[in-house]
Amino acid sequence: MSTEIKAPVFPESVAEGTVATWHKQPGEACSRDELIVDIETDKVVLEVVAPADGVIEEIVKGEGDTVESGEVVGTFKAGAAGESKPAEGKKEEAPKDEVQKEESAASGDAILSPAARKLAEENSIDPNAVKGTGKDGRVTKEDVQNHVDSKSAAGSAAPQPAAAMPEVNVAAGERPEKRVPMTRLRASIAKRLVNAQQSAAMLTTFNEVNMAPIMELRKQYQESFVKRHGIKLGFMSFFTKAATEALKRFPAVNASIDGNDMVYHGYQDIGVAVSTDRGLVVPVLRDSDAMGLADIEKKIVEYGTKAKGGKLGIEEMTGGTFTITNGGIFGSLISTPILNPPQTAILGMHKIQERPMAVNGKVEILPMMYLALSYDHRMIDGKEAVQFLVAIKEMLEDPARILLDV
Question: Which residue of 79, 126, 251, 288 has the fewest CB atoms within a 10 Å radius of its CB?
């Protein structure tokens, strides 16, 4: 019995998606719940699995095609005898492809799916340096992504220089360019950032914090913390707890704008910006007030792992009331973060750098970090923004304040 393979039902905020990768081809055997196709939206990659044991009959939407919510992308025949390779009935159409495979195998060239080839070109990866795990040794998109993530491309000696040659050995007067279309995620990020700057009265206030107390606390309790909770104690958990307490004191910073209404949230759902190869995503720590330092660290690691593999769900990235972004991990000393609409404020962390500071009339070398709070001036007055940032500074410089709520 034939059934339709449909794209998942997208949330209201997602208009359409793109077929990223077909993991199965017509005539190929599929097991129930086996991944058959990935649909990329402007937020996440959604997976479509086989409804039962059977075979793919037809692919209606190829890789790179645009699909709408619930649209048919292919047909599936349940209970049909599947094969480990395309069906016999397709052999008349296959000779050219088979010849290419044989020639590729003979020449040592890798066989790539269209999505994998595109990703390899975008990252200047030599396909021959990637180990294929797909059918007949085919290099899948996941193989290329894993290769990029592990940074093993630099260690793949022989073929790699050849791939880089056009960029290195350029004839005099030539000005090479490479045009790559934006991914849906990158296009969505661009649209949101431009919208934030055009629609909000955005302003940024700065301060700096002495990180010595937090660093000393981590040094003193790191071993016990890891032994007890099985995870390292980082800086982000302290910033999250400090921000949570500060948000309670300044409700306007924990608010959002909905049309002509100002919505004040009686809870703290803090988004933590995570950088991935596809772009910046902001998973949300729900009810951060009820989370301990270990809970926050574990959740951040979980989100980071999911983001790296493109496995974050849409529900994990929506509904935040405040955002924290850390440019310091890339070496940023100071910056002005852009609002994450419809939120009214975002906190920017930066690189910890030793600087000479005046302390009680004497000069001391202290590990300092610049903090930046960008906020919507329509909702938040300058006084509130400054006081909010000072509250975070005071809690970080005296961590006991976080526990005592003073």
Answer: 79
Residue range 214-242, pLDDT digits in tens: 999 999 999 999 999 999 999 999 999 99
Query: Which residue is listed with tokens 């180990």?
Result: 131
Tell me how far apart the alpha carbons of residues 122 and 116 are, in angstroms, rounded to a whole number: 10
- Tell me whether residue 229 is one of the annotated catalytic residues: no
Residue 394 C-beta-side C-alpha neighbours within 13 Å = 13
Q: What angle do CA 253, 256, 259 make, to 5 degrees?
A: 145
Judge whether 20 and 45 are in contact, CB under 8 Å.
yes
Cβ partners under 8 Å of residue 206, min gap 6: 334, 370, 371, 372, 373, 389
Give the strand pairing for 35-40 and 16-22: antiparallel
Phi, psi dihedral angles at 278 (to 5 degrees): -85, -15
State yes or no: cis peptide before 127, omega within 30 of 0. no
Question: What does the DSSP 8-state code read for residue 116?
Answer: H
Identify the DSSP state of 112: B
DSSP SS3 for 172: coil
- Does residue 265 have an active-site annotation? no
Q: Which of 42, 229, 381, 405 is catalytic?
A: 381
In this predicted model, what pLDDT tens digit does every residue of 148-160 receive, in sequence order?
666 443 443 333 3
3 state SS of 288: helix
CA neighbor of 127 nearest in space, from 115, 142, 106, 144: 144
